[in-house]
Amino acid sequence: MATTRVSWLLRCTHTWSIQPQTLCNRNVTTLTTTGTIFSRRRTSYVGVSMAVKTKEEEIVLEEEKKKLQLGIAEFYDESSGIWEDIWGEHMHHGFYHPDSTVSVSDHRDAQIRMIQQSLSFASLSEDSTKWPKSVVDVGCGIGGSSRYLAKKFGASCVGITLSPVQAERANALAAAQGLADKVSFQVADALEQPFPDGQFDLVWSMESGEHMPNKPKFVGELVRVAAPGGTIIIVTWCHRDLRPDEESLQPWEENLLKKICDSFYLPAWCSTAEYVKLLETMSLQDIKSADWSPFVAPFWPAVIRSALTWKGFTSILRSGLKTIKGALAMPLMIEGFRKGVIKFAIITCRKPEN
């Protein structure tokens, strides 16, 4: 069985090719969880409100949320040290030029390029007098983005994560880099952020939205803590947009995503179009989105190659069952991207001044 798994991983280490697609979904729905953490039910939303629930349903959903968040925290408690040891301080995809040939040393540069490209896409001003002075990093990992943004803009940054191990390590790295006076990290729930309204000039969410069981509440919190005129950047995994004649994904697509959810502690997925619709209902300005799937194509094959080195393989085995389960699911991510089910999306907007 182990030999079969390793050969399967090896077959998935070459780069795949994806062609950009335009948004096409006009029948917008949103996904919520019900029954068990990863079960699915399609529910229309109006504004940022979910469908009306009974008290019993609310209790069940709250219990599911707590269970999901515990799994997320434990997953990253286990795996963050391995990731940092092999890939460095940035726990997110890299941004590559399509069809480029990259070496292992290029991947960390690509992760920095992902941050730079995201800022550029959001049209943050090059005028230093207009740079953000305060930043929140929602789902901060071990704080790579926060420290980069603090250095670039001279801003004060605070990062939140569900993982105590990540928060502790992020603060240690900030101190080691002389940024303890600028950057801090804490354990907190992105759906109930411990910040007052309108506090941050830049609200940054780099690959954390996929972990959020309540997307309207997640987006609502990002908007709430953004200062008037502030910029919101969401970079996240989505499923493809539905066609006008579709009400849901195909059964095989749902099955593939469920397997990924079970391994990476993800709730139900949503599409880029659904994120855009949520932001539109909140009267935000300059809403933009793009499918960056072609630009992250070398990432998962590279992660698998690093896992198949002796250092990577032994580190995964020592880390725990959650990390092993996640590692074995990596080929499913490649399959999802290849078949167009998974999209790597960026969505940005600006909160009105008044």
UniProtKB/TrEMBL annotation:
UniProt domain Methyltransferase type: residue ranges: 136-234
Pfam family, one: Methyltransf_11
GO BP terms, alphabetized: methylation
UniProt region (SAM motif III), positions on chain: 225-234
InterPro entries: Methyltransf_11, PiNMT-like, SAM-dependent_MTases_sf
PROSITE patterns assigned: SAM_GTMT (PS51581)
Keywords of the record: Methyltransferase, S-adenosyl-L-methionine, Transferase
Assigned protein family: Belongs to the class I-like SAM-binding methyltransferase superfamily. gTMT family.
Protein name (database record): Methyltransferase type 11 domain-containing protein
Classification lineage: Eukaryota, Viridiplantae, Streptophyta, Embryophyta, Tracheophyta
